[in-house]
Amino acid sequence: MTDQKSFQDYYPEVLSHCYGCGRANEHGHRIKTFWEGEESVTHFTPEPYHIAMPGFVYGGLIASLIDCHSTGTAAAAMYRSEGREMGTEPSYRFVTGSLHVNYLRPTPIGVPLEIRGEVKEIKGKKVVITSSLSANGEVCATGEVVAVQMPDTMMS
Amino acid sequence: MTDQKSFQDYYPEVLSHCYGCGRANEHGHRIKTFWEGEESVTHFTPEPYHIAMPGFVYGGLIASLIDCHSTGTAAAAMYRSEGREMGTEPSYRFVTGSLHVNYLRPTPIGVPLEIRGEVKEIKGKKVVITSSLSANGEVCATGEVVAVQMPDTMMS
């Protein structure tokens, strides 16, 4: 696993500053996402202060992880759908059109979280990703993200 | 405005550790929400590193702000619906059942963001809050949160 490049490692440098997933953002979460068959997987261990209250992860972090996991998966899915390797041109980078998270149960702090994603739909410039976030093998939240190809206006 | 206590200032100390809105979390965002008539309002200026890419706020922060703004508004709305002052017993504290965010346009970094919320529905232990997030007077995202009264299991 550790020798493998993550989806985010393929982002061009200029698109690698995201607080959630940019390898160039020294303050951020720097999540890393990989394929496992048809699913995409991210592991992340929150900091002790990422709490809603003592003992439990705060919902904003859960939303952030699902968000960046999903936009990364969307990019990887587009390459895969075209039979292209990530990192080849033209490069894909997605932003979030909409984000939905269902919080099923409190998420315990202090253990690694696992986010698993699936590609629900690819339609034009839009990719829909569903995901689940687990702790200790138990699903604590589910998500659905509509990811859209980054508009050129964000690159200016 | 500055003399006024925010919703979050009324949370009991044990419930004031949230990374998004807890006044006792020194690492967190410590948002503060107030009534303005029927609407609730939070102002927050992101840090320079809270970016999706240079120039724009990252979506996870937007989701976090909408989330904590909404659970705070839910608590305040419950007190108000009962004609009680915040801080009186029994105290109300809400967690997020579900969170939905629509990202309408890129949110510029470097300016204060304004989140405005409205109470859509109060039903039993559930409060639905709709909100909009603006920068420079332009709405960049909208949200809907189903907030539910915190289960006792989170307090143990």
Structural account:
2 copies of one chain form a homodimer. Helices cover 15% and strands 37% of the residues of chain A. Chain A has 156 residues and is mainly β. Chain A has a 6-stranded antiparallel sheet with strand order 1-2-6-7-8-5, covered by helices on one side. In chain A, strand 6 and strand 7 (126-135) form a beta hairpin. The N and C termini of chain A lie far apart (35 Å). In chain A, 50% of the residues are buried. The A-B interface holds A 14-15, 17-20, 22, 25-28, 47, 49-56, 58-61, 63-65, 67-68, 95-103, 106, 151, 153-155 and B 14-15, 17-20, 22, 25-28, 47, 49-56, 58-61, 63-65, 67-68, 95-103, 106, 151, 153-155. Strand 5 of chain A pairs antiparallel with strand 5 (94-103) of chain B.
